[in-house]
Amino acid sequence: MGTIQDVKKLVNELIDTKFTIKTYFSSIEMSARDLGYSFEFDNTKNTFGRCFYIAKKIKLSLPLCSENLDKIHTNIKNTILHELAHAFSVEVHGMRNGRGHGSNWKTIARQIGCSGERCFKASEVNLPKSKYALICNSCGYSTPRHRKISSTYACTDCCNKHNNGRFTREYALQLVVN
Ligand SMILES: [Zn+2]
Ligand SMILES: [Zn+2]
What we know:
The chain has 178 residues and is α+β, with helices and mostly antiparallel strands. It has helices at residues 4-16, 62-67, 72-98, 103-111, 156-162; strands at residues 19-22, 27-30, 38-42, 49-52, 57-61, 132-135, 142-145, 174-177. Helix 1 (4-16) packs across helix 3 (72-98) and helix 3 packs antiparallel against helix 4. Residues 82, 86, 101 line the site of one zinc ion (ZN).
């Protein structure tokens, strides 16, 4: 079990690390620090990590990191590499072709040791306890919500099973306070 300080140390080490990025034409050594990137925590609960190309920031969710201190060298490290791959991909391929999770990003992600998955799977990380949950009274499906919602959602499974995939209020999800 690590600490938040360990996470901070790991991000900064990885931002300083010079990776070799190979393209069809060249092989370039670069670190995110060389490109002007620095690190910050933020308080978002839905996204583990984000890469801001213009502000040149790698941000990690403090609540999600706090819940996953047992996974610093697996999930958290993979998330950091995922975000670094975004920074490198935009540098190498330009904003137009380097953004997103296409093959340019994926190739670089794999070169620097990231699994190249689009994002973490909810089943592989510990999610912070949410204030609310949306539940289906018919099948028992439940999903965490961090904020109140005003629109009505219906249970996808139940609508598919009992209503040919069409929305019906009969299977509306109910917002409950945890
Ligand atoms: Zn991404
Ligand atoms: Zn349901």
